[in-house]
Amino acid sequence: MNTQPQRRIIRLPEVCERVGLGKTAIYGRIKDHTFPSPIKLGRASGWVEEEVQQWVDEQIEASRRKH
Predict the structure, then answer these.
(1) N or C: which end of the chain has fewer CB within 10 A?
(2) pLDDT at site 2
């Protein structure tokens, strides 16, 4: 029996919508190592949903610590 949670791959339009950043900003942060890198899906790329959500959670936490 597989006890690992099911992982989902999301594509760039959904990543942009979830994090509130555009394509250029996302790729800039990937280059700066401050955003999760995509994985290759043949010729396409996608992000592990869990990693993107963790990044969002970290941004919320960092913002709250400032106040």
Answers:
(1) N
(2) 64
